[in-house]
Amino acid sequence: MLIIMRPDFSEAQCLRVEDAVRAMGYQPVRVPGAGRTAVCVTGNRGPVDDSYISRLPGVAHCHRITKPFKLVSRDSHPTDTVIRIGDVVIGEGDPVLVAGPGSIETEARTLAVARAVRRAGAGIFRARLWSERIGPYEFAGVGDEGLHTLREVREELGIAVIAEVVDPRSAERVAEIVDAVQIPARHMENEPLFEAAAGLARPVILDRGPAATVEEWLMAAERLLARGQREVILCERGIRAMGHRRTLLDLHAVPVVRQISHLPVLVDPSRAVAERGRVRPLARAALAVGASGLLLEVHTTPDTAYTDPKQTVDVPTFTGIVEDLAVMRGLTPLSPAPPPT
Amino acid sequence: MLIIMRPDFSEAQCLRVEDAVRAMGYQPVRVPGAGRTAVCVTGNRGPVDDSYISRLPGVAHCHRITKPFKLVSRDSHPTDTVIRIGDVVIGEGDPVLVAGPGSIETEARTLAVARAVRRAGAGIFRARLWSERIGPYEFAGVGDEGLHTLREVREELGIAVIAEVVDPRSAERVAEIVDAVQIPARHMENEPLFEAAAGLARPVILDRGPAATVEEWLMAAERLLARGQREVILCERGIRAMGHRRTLLDLHAVPVVRQISHLPVLVDPSRAVAERGRVRPLARAALAVGASGLLLEVHTTPDTAYTDPKQTVDVPTFTGIVEDLAVMRGLTPLSPAPPPT
Amino acid sequence: MLIIMRPDFSEAQCLRVEDAVRAMGYQPVRVPGAGRTAVCVTGNRGPVDDSYISRLPGVAHCHRITKPFKLVSRDSHPTDTVIRIGDVVIGEGDPVLVAGPGSIETEARTLAVARAVRRAGAGIFRARLWSERIGPYEFAGVGDEGLHTLREVREELGIAVIAEVVDPRSAERVAEIVDAVQIPARHMENEPLFEAAAGLARPVILDRGPAATVEEWLMAAERLLARGQREVILCERGIRAMGHRRTLLDLHAVPVVRQISHLPVLVDPSRAVAERGRVRPLARAALAVGASGLLLEVHTTPDTAYTDPKQTVDVPTFTGIVEDLAVMRGLTPLSPAPPPT
Amino acid sequence: MLIIMRPDFSEAQCLRVEDAVRAMGYQPVRVPGAGRTAVCVTGNRGPVDDSYISRLPGVAHCHRITKPFKLVSRDSHPTDTVIRIGDVVIGEGDPVLVAGPGSIETEARTLAVARAVRRAGAGIFRARLWSERIGPYEFAGVGDEGLHTLREVREELGIAVIAEVVDPRSAERVAEIVDAVQIPARHMENEPLFEAAAGLARPVILDRGPAATVEEWLMAAERLLARGQREVILCERGIRAMGHRRTLLDLHAVPVVRQISHLPVLVDPSRAVAERGRVRPLARAALAVGASGLLLEVHTTPDTAYTDPKQTVDVPTFTGIVEDLAVMRGLTPLSPAPPPT
Fold this sequence. Notes:
The first copy, chain A, has helices spanning about 10-25, 105-120, 145-155, 170-175, 190-200, 215-225, 255-260, 270-275, 280-290, 315-330; strands spanning about 1-5, 25-30, 35-40, 60-65, 85, 90, 95-100, 125, 160-165, 180-185, 205, 230-235, 265, 295.
């Protein structure tokens, strides 16, 4: 249930509402917004009796939520959530381009890539500490040592940096260096990692798992919001589907998520297509369908990249995507469709 | 195997090559092209001995094809195939917009839709004779009677028209009226229908089946080409994938097909997304990824459409897509990526 | 809606009920059963008003059906449907074993296989007239000529024979020779073929399409029943799923179908697994899960089979499956689970 | 590469071989077996030069491995791996039945279930500490507190117990109490958890992720083996597939894994089917196809189970499965098929 406060409500009224919710055995979560403030009731397993609460001072009305997700839903937060990573704004205005090598490499090589993508127009730099390898005999990534390299990139170029968290024990350490953390697809339901990520004072980019439905992905985001992490950005990066490719980019997911949720959605075509020559066409499609930004694996010398050379594009291709974005700016913005009845 | 003729080859030389292929027990298929002519050897189950043929007069060289498809491949026809439906050109220049109601309705209603989409910018009119219903109790379509209506649309508006063929017995009758026929997804492997469609003097639009890999879809096209139907247009319209939607538009398929094949590829977002509010975003994505055109279900009063009202857009939305296409014209054309090694 | 007649109803009463249904603009379909007779109302798009009909003489009560399928449902026919192919009974007692080569080969070879599988315990012989090839350059099957061979098998061995129908123009001709026809998976939604098959005086085995949900498959069966074909047998033969194999046998489908429908379900592990060494384990699983029988590709010399040699088992393996069936006879029969609430 | 030692090799010879491998920059992993001992070379990215090593004393011959997995493969360990959990043997003889409630409940309720399944024939007791919930508002499981309950079950009934590990920080604590740990499907690629699990002196049951191919699952097992965890048991529990059910049990996976790998494979039909009435038919199918055992959610009062009541069966159903297993004992054991060429 969602308790919508009157425009002129006082803090004391809101605290009293929250106490009343607790007295019923549930957890109140306050959802401030541009036009209105609401208190979301969580922890209930069935309909909540609103007869008492709806008459408390400062309460405008109560609204029943029948969907399994509450805090991620536009019901509780009708306007788009806007999140800042460094000095870049995500969720309004131009889509953001996040670029970098698949993994952090040597400091010199990593800085070279960072300078090149920064110059070409990247808003944020991203590189993995740990490689998303399949087997034990592939390159494992530089690990924690890469944090030093990320700090160099940040200081030298003044660009915001992103790296992933995979272990609850090191999440805090990563967050001290980076401007936002990413939860990789294979950890989309890693509960102990969620607990750690929820407590970080950094935005969290939540990858969709390759077998997750949109609903399951939103429920994973709901877990972060329910623990107090307000700055969640979703990232579509391909789902498993029959056929000959590793994953298939689910671009339907972008308008579907925008319809249901107020959270921004990035798209990562590099991971999804797993082949260099297809990255730019799919990047265009992702921008066209309404993504809030792109995550791209870019390298100055892609063939020598430590991870994923086949899917890593070169800097001229990235520059082309920056130009594509400029053309797409001519498209009329579409508001999210009303949910299907 | 592909026998590439010299630029100055004579007809007699080519006939002799074809006879030599037949003498080896295989079938020759001549593939004329802008820059070169080739003879494709079909019917062999293993490598073909080229020692004799490669020395025949007029032969430049022989080229082994290791992929299962030959005639659809860029190996046998390196440049894009361009196909004309009525006065509309598909496969070069601007993407074509094909629009119309899900099914043919009454003559008056159908004409009203045709006039509206024509005025808004549709290049071709399409409407089904038979509804793609799931069960026996849904609207079955008007059937053969609709041919009269299509003829009216064609004559009154001077617009090319498309309808589907589903029965080998009536394929010829449909082809007499329309400018191109469409083989629906559920008939993608209907061999007797293929035999009938291969013999029609009309371009054939071949839908991808919802469980077909790109290779299987191209092999289905190969069956048409092997029987002498040169004018084949592919149409991606969604594949089955886990999650909550009917099908998922496989936009990877567009660059993948362009890489492998010279045939044009249309995209049908209406069938794939099955929800009105998502058609325009996905139409944009399909144009951005490089489709040769779109098939769209459009109606003057979508809620009253005889079939698929939920996925049918209104005329203003279609007009918006025409505008989107104009913006996308600013994107640099991308040549097909070289095939992965 | 389902109109359940009283146990002592007269033919005149039933005719009057059917007239009343027609008068309301719907189609009545009579469903006789062991314990009761019902009249199913079809063609309605919403709830039917039963106030008049429920008071007609001979009517016990009216029962609303909310599922999209009616005639295939246990609601309209609570007991298992039992179908006879030649002298073999399907749907009660022991599961039936249908065996034969992937395609009809020469008469001598085909008869050799038929004799061997008959001797080993096959109840029915099955071989395809047309090969389920992917591309135009593979073996196409012997076609109509194979009917003569099937007649020989039938006459010499006294065994029932099955072949597939793929073309509405030849369905009648096939049905004259065989004891049952099979609609291949790739024709699961071929409407003109359904019309032809519905009119045949032979049981119809309906393959599940590789991308069809259980509901869509049952709706396809509903189309046959709605046109008067009462003898429909379902056949699960693998669906598309991510991973490295052609298809995945959906053995959940067997208890799910038995729960919803009264129709028998066969399982074809050969098509599904596409590899010889996995046929017997999956055949065991299919028998264990409750299939009404198996369709198996068996050959005296599998490596030389004209089609599908990789998935064709030899006669000793088939004999092993016959022995497995004998062991499984010791399992307690399970009644279909009540539908989930 | 695999270095096969002669039957009469000495320890000193093997150590010298291992040193030689290290000198080439790779990691040796010794693989002892019933009939032979091998040293597996890991860490190489291409073919290894065997000219020196193959001539070392005690070396029989060298064998190139072209598959991505080595230690899980039958190439390195041809005979079935047999693993002991408590006094139960897995991987030879009768399949093992593992049973228990979805989650640990109160001590009294959990003990009641344990006593009932023990009496009915369960070889091992399993219950989750943490619920596999989708959203933040569902029952989260009792957590670490449940370890006390598991200890009670173990001591009172003398039955081996299994619980899952999800957090590297608590893996050791769980392993102190239980006889084997389980890595849940959603953690199939959780690298930090793998590091922790590899070091435990307990067998590890590795669930297949719902979007993992068999190869990816085996590569996950390879990661455990490469870190020295020799006692790995695989568990198939359903993959995502189109259609109306949560997951589809991939029973092909059992013969496929047995063909490639020496590790035992369990099947969990409860998680996969998500509906009580389908558990026993699928349990039968899993036993028939050759699973090394079953994991089943069983409760004395299933409707009141804290988690997954819909998929939890009652004790009489479990007793029925024990009887089914006795019948299946009559089936001839099948040896794993040779790998496809």
